[in-house]
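Anyone up for a design puzzle?
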């Protein structure tokens, strides 16, 4: 009888101990997950602040290069080494892209560009990053593109309005380029005047170099932030609303308009310069 009681007592103690250990492990795992989320948020804040510093350096023409914020070690990292800042992975040895020259494709060259480069499809790079090219308002970038490269290759004014199109085909503006005589690059808006950043696209074989291509051609928009007047049409499919939007050299503007049966060319550019 005593041995049975002892066995049950030992079993109860073991079960209680295992239950306590499971609870402790669960608490530890939950805490680690929470700390991971906190660390991810900190990394996001650092990335955004680094992009802001680069933009301020370009605007104020700092003489010294801007270094990104460096996280300080915390006592928390001793207990949870997985949360300690990790060194960025060494990039694969690859020759950096060198832009020797570029050609802006004009409106009358669209057919030539599509025949030469439009058969292979496109790889896209969106504006999910934290560089100024991702975070600046799209109208601001559009005005800078106008100053550096002139009028876009294609706008909504060249779209056949009688065709029902997917939402992503209602593009406010597109700039088409040929880099170094052989590399196609397209620059287009994300969601018209209501978004930030721009999208770039090139042939699928340049997918891994899209960031390099974008930086080589478009970093001048940040280092030399001059702007020029422009005017574009835009259609917001979610609200079934047409707009005419632009920049007059001093102010950005956006006005709704009646749905047109046809667009007789691009809207006139109003400049106060």
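Challenge accepted. My sequence:
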């Amino acid at each position: 009888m005593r041995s049975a009681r002892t066995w049950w007592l030992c079993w109860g103690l073991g079960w209680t101990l295992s239950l306590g250990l499971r609870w402790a492990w669960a608490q530890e795992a939950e805490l680690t997950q929470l700390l991971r989320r906190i660390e991810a948020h900190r990394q996001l804040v650092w990335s955004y602040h680094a992009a802001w510093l680069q933009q301020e350096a370009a605007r104020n023409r700092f003489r010294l290069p801007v270094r990104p914020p460096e996280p300080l070690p915390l006592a928390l990292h001793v207990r949870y080494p997985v949360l300690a800042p990790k060194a960025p992975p060494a990039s694969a040895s690859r020759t950096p892209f060198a832009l020797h020259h570029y050609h802006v494709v004009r409106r009358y060259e669209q057919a030539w560009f599509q025949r030469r480069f439009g058969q292979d499809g496109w790889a896209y790079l969106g504006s999910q990053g934290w560089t100024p090219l991702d975070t600046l308002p799209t109208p601001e970038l559009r005005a800078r593109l106008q100053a550096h490269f002139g009028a876009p290759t294609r706008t909504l004014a060249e779209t056949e309005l009688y065709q029902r199109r997917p939402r992503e085909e209602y593009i406010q503006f597109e700039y088409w380029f040929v880099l170094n005589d052989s590399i196609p690059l397209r620059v287009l808006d994300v969601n018209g005047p209501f978004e930030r950043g721009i999208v770039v696209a090139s042939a699928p074989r340049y997918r891994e170099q899209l960031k390099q291509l974008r930086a080589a051609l478009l970093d001048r928009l940040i280092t030399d932030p001059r702007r020029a007047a422009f005017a574009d049409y835009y259609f917001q499919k979610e609200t079934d609303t047409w707009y005419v939007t632009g920049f007059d050299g001093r102010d950005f503007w956006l006005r709704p308009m009646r749905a047109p049966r046809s667009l007789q060319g691009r809207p006139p550019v109003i400049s106060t310069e």
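A detail worth pointing out: The longest helix spans residues 2-60.
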